[in-house]
Specification:
By secondary structure, the chain is mainly α. It has one domain. The chain is built from 6 helices and no strands. The longest helix has 35 residues. Pfam families: DUF6803.
């Protein structure tokens, strides 16, 4: 099992909620609110407020998750050689890369980034950042579900295909 899956499977349901459910619910809320804004062209309505609040929350929350996992998992695993292979590193790495789009949304929604952009340009950038998070989160999930032993020849033992 990758460290990513172990993180989600340990201390059920709390770690699953903290490390998977909250970030994914934020991303889905952002994606839906972006679609509402796109279809209604209402740049000042409820969907925009929900998007802004969620973007700020997600940026702060995921930055805290990033720092916590960097200190408690990534640095110790790297220092001790505890990684379980490339799939493990890819899963954890892509999960942590999610901090970039969420931090970007935080900076955009707080006005630190994009001050000279108009509302439509900010909306485009916000939507791109949501998309980036969804892509990196799905890459992390896919690689996190793989058996890390597949690349070392130890995986799929006992699996019968076509039987």
């Amino acid at each position: 099992m990758t460290h990513y899956m172990e993180l989600l499977a340990t201390n059920q349901p709390w770690q699953l909620l903290l490390f998977m459910a909250i970030p994914v619910i934020c991303a889905e809320t952002l994606a839906i609110s972006e679609l509402i804004i796109l279809f209604t062209r209402n740049l000042a309505g409820r969907a925009k407020r929900v998007s802004k609040i969620t973007g700020i929350f997600a940026g702060v929350y995921f930055t805290a998750v990033f720092i916590y996992l960097l200190i408690t998992a990534v640095i110790p695993l790297t220092a001790t050689g505890g990684w379980r292979g490339p799939f493990d590193v890819i899963a954890v790495g892509f999960y942590l890369i999610g901090v970039i789009p969420f931090a970007g949304m935080f900076l955009l929604d707080t006005g630190i980034l994009g001050r000279k952009k108009d509302q439509v340009e900010k909306l485009k950038l916000h939507a791109i950042l949501v998309g980036i998070f969804l892509v990196v989160a799905h890459v992390a999930m896919i690689f996190g579900m793989l058996d890390p032993a597949l690349l070392t020849g130890g995986g799929m033992s006992g699996v019968m295909i076509g039987a």
